[in-house]
Amino acid sequence: MGELLLDTNVLVLHLRKRGSVTEFLLKWGQQDNLHISVVTRTELIAGMRPREERTTMDLLASLHNLPITPAIADRAGRLIYAKARQGIQVSFPDALIAATALEHELIVVTTNARHFEEVGARAQELRANC
What we know:
The protein is of the alpha/beta class. It has a single domain (4-125), classed as Rossmann fold. The protein is built from seven helices and five strands. A five-stranded parallel beta sheet has the order 3-2-1-4-5. Helix 5 crosses helix 6.
């Protein structure tokens, strides 16, 4: 499948023990190719439950955390601008995650591939029962 960029929703499903998401992460994590944007890190920490903190922080430490560089920020801004001109609203976090995937040539693993495909990123749909 290649190098992967995990969307926030995939990590939430893993932490909440939904479906076989954990099996997917364990399988692909053995190949050392799982990445997240620091945007995903922020979203996950902002939404974690108090009892999930240790598990969440351990999970985040096990993944390659990719920073927002000026090139990624610029690309995200251009994605938002271009899609707005077409009447499509792209959220700020999704634009940054998509731009990170595009800059690093990664495949976004998400439960909503359409959000990322609409802005030109390669995406792999992951269902909770994958």
